[in-house]
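TEACHING EXERCISE
Course module: macromolecular assemblies
Task: Read the component lines below, then compare them to the predicted structure of the full complex.
Student: A.B.
Group: 4
Components provided:
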Amino acid sequence: MEITVSDFGSTAKKVTLVGKLDIEGAQKIELPLAVIAGSKSDVLVDMVGVDFIASIGIRHLVMASKSVARGAAKLVLLAPNPMVTEVLVVSGLEQILPIVRSEDEALAVFGRASA
Amino acid sequence: MAVPAPDKSLLRSEAPIEAETRRFGVSQSDASAIDEWIENVGHQWEMSARTIFGARLCIAELVNNVIEHGRARHDDDHLVLTLSRYNGAFGLEFMDTTGPFDPTGPVARAQDLTESIGGRGLMLIRAYARELGYRHDGRYNRTTLKIAFA
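Instructor-supplied answer key:
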């Protein structure tokens, strides 16, 4: 699992994940994701490169989303592949981890402050 | 140490076309090795991408449960996994020597699932497994699953 963090729009952050969000992958993203989630910025998590996810990976995303929400910001997932999307849907997490299909859609969710 | 024979009584609907059994330790690196093995065998057996994904997911949840919940307590705790090829389906038998754990038992309430890793993992196993069985044979938890997607 690789994780990179960049600016997105004027105030948001983009976290790009590539690889497997299994037990090893989840451990690699835990700290950097928690740091970003505590920054009170909107967060776009680019899931395009994530080819596998298990509940332990979902847990870190949920914790990050809750942390972001406590800072009055939003976390959204960008374009997970169909099988990863299915796991998130089966888990009933569409409300906590909303999915967008483009960066423009993410900016719309975040509102003008991030544009 | 000899690898115990898979429990064919738990997947009783038909005989597998072929099967492979391997023994693993209880660690993160073992979890990765198991995942890679399932993926390779699934491709070799020409399983569909969703079937392979479902098999990897279910076994990842069972392995995570052993590792994350600290159920491995002895140096000789280990896992034995048998992959079976059925006509269009992946048969899995997951055996572990850690404390008794029945994945067919009650799942956490829905409102707990955003906090409960175990509850969400079990929910995913039940969503992806076409068949799910469990028994404890005195030494091993023996969880059996069948995964089949188009």
